[in-house]
Amino acid sequence: MRAKDATKLAVIRGLLTAVTNDLVSKERGPDGTLSDDELMTIIMRAAKQRKDSIQQFEAGGRPELAEGEKAELAVLETMLPAQMSRDEIVAAATAKAAQMGVTDKTKANMLMGSLMKDLKGKADGTVVKEVVDGLFT
After folding, report:
1. What spatial distance separates the first Cα and last Cα of the chain, rounded to whole Å?
2. Would you give the distance in Å from CA 81 to the centre of its chain?
3. What's the rounded Cα separation, in Å, for the pair 65 and 81?
4. CB-based contacts of 47, cutoff 8 Å, min separation 6
5. Contact 43, 19 (CB under 8 A)
6. DSSP 33-84
7. Structural domains in the chain, sorted by start
């Protein structure tokens, strides 16, 4: 507030509201606490919402609204862990497929589920899905 950074303030206020809503929905009361994983899930959800909004605004011909969402997304990304590169995801997927014995597309969903548990918060789900689909084509 003292820095007069309106974007950062809006993002933090939005996250506080999301945290309070999550606590109330889990019946812990507004003064309860969340685990680090639960908090990371809330931040990732907010980032995903911003990405979706940016895509919708750009498709609708509203670049001025997309700019505001991009600024908020930049603030949220500072709170998230660094995302894995595509090469790192390919290496992890290949290793996990070998470990699980997955050799064809019929068990790709099992591989995807297991891989997402391992890479939660470290990799974008759409990139992981593309990599898993690419392993069996």
Report:
1. 52
2. 10
3. 26
4. 73, 76, 77, 80
5. no
6. ---HHHHHHHHHHHHHHHHHHHHHHHHTT-HHHHHHHHHHHHHHHHHSPPPP
7. 6-79 (1.10.1510.10), 86-135 (1.10.10)
**Residue 96 and residue 111: Cα distance in Å, rounded?**
7
Q: Which two tokens stand for residue 67?
A: 């700019």
**Amino acid identity of 117?**
K
Query: Token match 């507030």: residue?
Result: 1
| pLDDT values of the chain reduced to their tens digit, one per residue, 137 residues | 677 889 999 999 999 999 999 999 988 888 888 888 889 889 989 999 999 999 999 999 999 999 999 999 999 999 988 888 889 999 999 998 889 888 888 888 888 889 988 888 788 888 888 998 888 77
